[in-house]
Write a structure and sequence with these properties.
The strands form two sheets. A six-stranded mixed β-sheet has the order 3-4-5-2-1-6, covered by helices on one side. A five-stranded mixed β-sheet has the order 8-9-7-10-11, sandwiched between helices. It contains 14 helices and eleven strands. With 439 residues, it is of the alpha/beta class. The radius of gyration is 28 Å and the shape is flat. A hairpin with a 6-residue loop joins strand 1 (9-12) and strand 2 (19-27). Helices cover 46% and strands 15% of the residues. The protein folds into three domains: 9-108, Gyrase A, domain 2, CATH 3.30.1360; 124-201 and 379-432, tRNA modification GTPase MnmE domain 2 (Four Helix Bundle (Hemerythrin (Met), subunit A), Up-down Bundle), CATH 1.20.120; 212-369, Rossmann fold (3-Layer(aba) Sandwich). The chain binds guanosine-5'-triphosphate (GTP) and magnesium ion (MG).
Length: 439
Amino acid sequence: MLRRRGETVAAPATAPGRAALGVVRISGPKALGAIRSLVGRTFEDRRPALASLPEAGRAMVTFYRGPRSYTGEDLVEVALHGNPLLEEALLRRLGEEGVLPALPGEFTFRAVLNGKMDLVQAEGIAALIDAQTPLQVRRALDGANGALSARLGEIKEKMTEAMACLEAAIEFPEEGTHGEGPGARKAVEEAAAAARALSGSCLSAPGSGIPRVSIAGPPNAGKSTLFNRLAGNEKAMVTSVSGTTRDGLMEEVRIGGRAVLIEDTAGLFASEDPVTALAAERAEASLDGAERIIWLADASRPRAGQELERAAARWGGRVAVAANKADLGVHPDWTGKEPVFSGLTGEGMEGVRALLSDWAEAEERRQREAAFFVNWRQEQALKRVADHLERAGELAGTGALELAAQEVNDGAAVLADLAGEIPSEAVLDHIFASFCIGK
Ligand SMILES: Nc1nc2c(ncn2[C@@H]2O[C@H](COP(=O)(O)OP(=O)(O)OP(=O)(O)O)[C@@H](O)[C@H]2O)c(=O)[nH]1
Ligand SMILES: [Mg+2]
């Protein structure tokens, strides 16, 4: 959809709203001609100059001659007074010159097509714009400035080395004494380990890095009440009727200075009517993707018979139990090992908050310690690369060198796809769908 080469496109590059400046970007072969015909003068490469625009006032115009520009094409940046109406007036006049509105991500897309950056860097730029913490900014910068691409390049180099050894060993089997077989195996194993390690540095919610904590439990456990209390509003409906929540809600809250995404979910493990059964099914699927789960039990009742084992069996170490409705009395089974609280009165809430805060801190530590930030797409690709290479290592060990070479080749194709060397249309659409207009 973004493939419309040869067209000249324009869009505001700054956020909509009133500000000191509003920047409009124009990219493509007609960029300079269009602005020239609007203001009646031309501009030199990389020499900002003041110009008076019809209906849009004075502006600073900078021309970047391709390929030395963000997109790799002729590019003009017009810094206007920051009012969306002025940007609109300029864009309308540009339209009369044959300039088309840019689609979201189109400038960066063109930069990738023109070899100014690879796909991993483009994703780094998207992550940079979405970053919400200084740490996320640092990680996104690794992607945007090419450090992550360089790491992928090292993996690729190891694979090339392995390939050379394998080919030599296949070609001249009688000279196997030179150690090509073991050499290939070593290179393959190193590349596999590097790909596997990098795939493990995927952060939680794709692109966000903020841990999601789902509030779960049986119907009427008080999930929505707790959600509202943590969110500080009344967005979730609370009633004494079991099965009130159907579609879950999410809200970003700050606990101890850290961002946490909390989720209210439908009650689980009870399915009288088809709608609540479907809601429960969806809630379960959502819990599968959550970093952490708070399972609400009833403090006034014994531990047994509250589905705690079932939840633990399904979600393992990601689940922590908290006992709600402490205002109705606390059964002796609840010894205070888990938070005991009341969503209704707020007593004991500090225990729940401490739990969330510990989780957020652990997540932050994990992010800090991760060597790189990889997103979900990159993680999936790296895992596939590692799978191919691990198989190649095993095959090389058994002497099946040709099969091993095939596996290395397959891994190399996945890696090339990851960096966008031979990107498929579907991959491109997916990546650039998340960009904003003007980027
Ligand atoms: N006494 C007491 N009642 C509570 C507490 N928390 C929730 N309730 C009550 O329990 C009922 C259910 O609360 P909700 O928050 O809607 O529970 P839920 O788990 O979201 O329920 P569903 O969405 O229907 O699964 C309501 O009548 C609440 O007022 C609590 O701490 N103490
Ligand atoms: Mg509810």
